Model the fold of this input.
Amino acid sequence: MSLNYTKKTISHFLHPKNLGSVKNADACASIGNMVCGDQLSFSIKVKDGIIKDIKFLSFGCASNIATASVLTEKVKGLTIAQAKNLDWQEIVKDLGGLPNQKIHCSILAVEGLKKVIAEYETKHPAVKK
Amino acid sequence: MKVYLDNAATTKIDPRVLTKMKPYYLRHYGNASSIHALGQENDLLIKACKERIAKIFQTKPDSLVFTSSATEANNFIIKGVMRANQAEGKHLIVSAIEHPCVLNSARELADEGYRVDYLPVDSDGLVKLDELERMIKPDTVLVSVMAVNNEIGVIQDIAKISELVHRKGAYFHTDAVQAIPYLNLDIKKLKIDFMSLSAHKFYGPLGAGLAFINPDIKIRPLIVGGGQENGLRAGTYNVPAIVGLTEALILSYKERAAYIKKVKALRDYFWAKIKQAIPEVYLNGSLPKRTPNNLNIRFRRIEGEAILMDLSFKGIYVSTGSACSAQNLKVSATLKALGLDLADLNSNIRFSLGRYNTKAEIDYTVKCLKETVKRLRQFTPIV
Done:
């Protein structure tokens, strides 16, 4: 199987950013891929509609870890509205590409982000307006 | 330090084997089917190779067919026997833990209208003989059970399986790719009808496989052409590969006792050290009933490909049956058949030791493995 990760993907795998769980998080969500068994958990801290902090936990391959890591970097400081519009293709582009069979990792990471935002909005309905 | 612990994937060729192969590229390069002297001396050489191989396995030279790989040998035997013996029935039984080349050959036959049953294994990885007894029907033509599993190294009781299969009137094939030189495969005594091997698993060259057939049983060729191998496998004889396979096989069996002793001592040391250094580790498959080169370990709560990649950056080369590492994102059929918890299916690493590994390499691997597992467990969401 051809599985050549970019330098940036490898760097995020070996040294992932924003690992762990945010203290006193405003929302937490976990997501899993039924096919490959990977799992991600995100927790966020929001202030004035801006994602102040985001951390993740991963049970997954190198690309699962790297995509989640790069996603947290991109999302920190964004408004909820901006974060909701994050596209998985931006993650792939940011990493300099992913092997074909690993594209789904970036989709899982973005779905996880959407889930944690949805969780936040459910808990804080006022902010949604 | 570089540590190669993926010998079940392929081995580094024995330099003595390579030396024996070289003249057949550079001087004796005749096509063994050519009538002139340069061709005919290679024709004789191939016959001599078959004589030497037949001796090791207590079989006849005319029961050997050289192929390009064990994958080809397995395809040839399974499809060839089923297609040639339709008058006897259209039922095939393969174990649930066969290599993909056997499982996918069976699938192809199922698409063609054959009936295929998958023989389950117990939690040790051993096929259930009582199930097999029930599964074999009057129209069962062939039963295929691998001698040694490629992932967990578990050794099947070939003598018992063969006896049962023949008593019930079917033919028996075993994929013995991972069995060399660990098992004494006496084809006559074990009454094996069909068997497959591959040279690169025992320090021989890539591209050299071998199919053992029972000349009394009908088989249809997979590759047709110029009539080589008695019409059973067409294609120019790969003389250097045949020489390499033969030399590697003979050396493996000649040096077998010392090799097994060395690799087993190292493997047992490795497993003891891992258990000592790392919590929550479990062995997949039986320990006593496996080849002495294999360890397949479950590292709970972390994912196999992540472990593999992390080790790879430290110069340690292993493999995993995790779904992430598969092109089709499917978890290995073998690990699934063992009945592991769903959560544990993707947390497995296969270490396969070989002739060139040293104690210093094992010590380095345990040290790195400890760091890798610790790092990945720091951020797992699974408790």
About this structure: The first strand of chain B starts at residue 3 and ends at 4. The CA atoms of residues 32 and 306 of chain B lie 48 Å apart.
